[in-house]
Amino acid sequence: MALQAQIVGWGKYLPSRVLTNDDLAAMVDTSDEWIRQRTGIIERRIAAPNETTAEMALRAAQDALRMAGISSRDIDLIIVATATPDQEFPATACILQDALGASRAGGFDLSAGCSGFVYALAMAAGAIAAGMSRLVLIVGVEKLSRIMDWSDRSTCVLFGDGAGAVVLRGGEGPSGILSTTLGADGSGGDLLALRPKVSDDPNGRGPYITMDGRRVFKFATRVMPSAVSQVVKEAGLSLSDLQLLIPHQANQRIIEAACEAMGFPMERTFSNLERYGNTSAASIPIALCEAAEEGRLADGDLVALVSFGAGLSWAAALIRWGRAERVVWY
Ligand code: UT7
């Protein structure tokens, strides 16, 4: 029987510096009122200039490993989902592997924009089911402040930095990842992209994010309901069986529109974007972590994760929450 990937530990890291809407209003032509009304965001965290993506990933990973009660030497695969690695290579996962002393682990970075963490969950679930891996560490981490155009009010008010991690272990029993779906539509790639640095840029910007917000908004509200329906259906269940939906934390209006389209109650949806903004690949693992900390996940609960982002890409996963009934070591 194929093993299921069960979440046995989770952790997060948020940098200490808070950037409020009022702080942003002093930088660009915006206001606290506009940002709250159009996005639901009140503040976000910003990493220190010398704080790296790998360091943030390490803090979240250590938290998750401590909770799982496992040694880093037992991990056999590390996947880091990020759009903001410190450098093109080596992979952040390899820097993390060394920092953790995960001497038996392979590691790679996964680039799927804001969908990266859910993509990584799907890859890990597959590796565990195939018997390729037994303990997988997944981190979603971003230092988006590094690629922000701080003169563009249509993007700089949206994003923040942070990291979230989970440890997955192969096990038997009802809990674990039940189904996943992945999607991509590269024809929309230009709608959300990293513009390369040009030498004669009048603002002296490095590479920076550009986005057609309105079109990404429409795309998100279209793909989220269908991805959630798909994972629920694949598991032979229905939307009403879901105890909690953890959507990508991009915009409260997107979450509300997607829930309305699905006929899913907002009370069963998790949101923390007012405090962190959009942390891209880190948004879902941070939210998952906080949902667990706040007691919103009980053993046996069905929770769906759904994300969308650059690529364009989208992904969803359905999880039966609960600690492993029987640990399988091979
Ligand atoms: O992880 C995926 C990442 N991307 C997203 O999630 C983005 C999805 N899109 C969105 O969240 C929304 O489209 C935004 C929040 C980006 C924008 O909200 P919107 O309701 O779609 O506004 P809009 O782009 O249609 O702009 C409305 C007005 C425009 O002014 P005019 O042309 O009507 O005079 C903008 O110039 O709001 C203006 N505007 C702002 N005003 C104050 C745009 N950004 C700001 C701002 N402050 N920060």
Small molecules bound in the structure, each named once? oxa(dethia)-CoA
Distance between the termini: 14 Å
Strand percent estimate: 25-35%
Order of helices and strands: EEHHEHEHEHEHEEEEHEHHHEEE
Number of strands: 14
Please state the structural category: alpha+beta
Number of separate helices: 10
Coarse morphology: globular
Taking pLDDT < 50 over at least 5 consecutive residues as the criterion, the unreliable ranges are 326-330
What share of residues is helical? Answer: 25-40%
The overall pLDDT average reads 95
Oligomer: single chain
Described by strand count, sense and barrel closure, the largest sheet is: 6 strands, mixed
- The Rg value, from CA coordinates, equals 19 Å
Quick synopsis:
By secondary structure, the protein is α+β, with helices and mostly antiparallel strands.
Task: Describe what you observe in this structure.
With 330 residues, the protein is an alpha+beta fold. The chain is 32% helix and 26% strand. It is built from 10 helices and 14 strands. The chain has helices at 21-25, 32-39, 53-68, 92-100, 116-129, 153-156, 213-234, 252-262, 273-276, 283-293, and strands spanning 4-13, 17-20, 43-46, 77-81, 106-110, 135-142, 162-172, 176-184, 192-195, 208-211, 244-247, 302-309, 313-320, 326-327. Strands 1, 4, 5, 6, 7 and 14 form a 6-stranded mixed β-sheet that branches. Strands 8-13-12-11 form a 4-stranded mixed β-sheet, sandwiched between helices. Helix 4 (92-100) links the parallel strand 4 (77-81) and strand 5. It is globular. Bound molecules: oxa(dethia)-CoA. Oxa(dethia)-CoA is lined by residues 30, 34-35, 38-39, 114, 153-154, 157, 192, 211, 213-214, 216-217, 250-251, 278, 309. Residues 30, 34-35, 38-39, 114, 153-154, 157, 192, 211, 213-214, 216-217, 250-251, 278, 309 line the site of oxa(dethia)-CoA (UT7).
